[in-house]
Amino acid sequence: MKSVTTFHPALRALHWLMAIAIIAMLFIGVTMVSTVSSWHGLLVAIHKPLGVMILLLVVVRLWLRFTTDQPALPASIPVWQRAAAHLSHWVLYLLMLAQPLIGWAMLSAAGYPVTLGGGLVLPPITAVNNTLYALLRPLHTWLALLLFVTVMMHLAAALLHALVRRDGVFSSMTGAGKR
After folding, report:
1. Are 133 and 109 in contact (CB under 8 A)?
2. If residue 81 lies in a helix (H) or strand (E), which one and from where to where?
3. Which of 31, 70, 76, 105 has its CA 20 to 30 A from that of 125?
């Protein structure tokens, strides 16, 4: 494996596109379940296809992650922080996969279609089942909260590397500089 200082350009683009999509999705989800306003229908119409888009993008992103060279973390980072960084990334990937799949399964269990617009409707991935829906509904909420916390920790770590440590970790994802 050759030594690289930045992530592959496609990985960087996917990272930032997904960051925007996930933050938007979290805000849409909170607004969607906390309001009975006329915006609810529009928010649901955005939430479903955005979730499917995130699911597809994370699959592409994982494929790129396994098939492209990754920059190493600086030697100055302690072993426990390296382990925490790797663990947090895998938690993010797991949540980015699980959250849309659980949402899709939840809607399927409730008998609601996942519509993507233009008449495209995804097939249900579970049978209609009220007991399963009752399990998946709060799970979707709890995983959204865990995703929010994990994203905020990731953001805090990124800012620490960008503004305090200035060790090239942040620039490896922006492509703005070499280590």
Report:
1. yes
2. helix 79-110
3. 31
Residue 128 phi, psi dihedral angles, 5° rounding:
-60, 125
Tokens describing residue 160:
């620490």
- By C-alpha distance, which of 135, 81, 78 is closest to 110? 135
Q: pLDDT at residue 148 above 90?
A: yes
Tell me the CA distances in angstroms from 18 to 3, 52, 138, 169, one per residue in order. Answer: 26, 12, 24, 19
Residue 78: CA atoms inside 13 Å, Cβ hemisphere, count?
A: 3
In this prediction, residue 88 carries a pLDDT of 95
Architecture of domain 9-174: Up-down Bundle (1.20)
Contact 25, 48 (CB under 8 A): no
- In order, the DSSP letters of 34-45 are T--STTHHHHHH
Do the beta carbons of residue 51 and residue 103 sit within 8 Å? yes
pTM given for the model: 0.91
Give the mean pLDDT of 97-115.
96
pLDDT band at 126 (very low <50, low <70, confident <90, very high): very high
Higher pLDDT residue, 176 or 116?
116
Write down the domain spans for the chain: 9-174
pLDDT at residue 151, as a whole number: 96
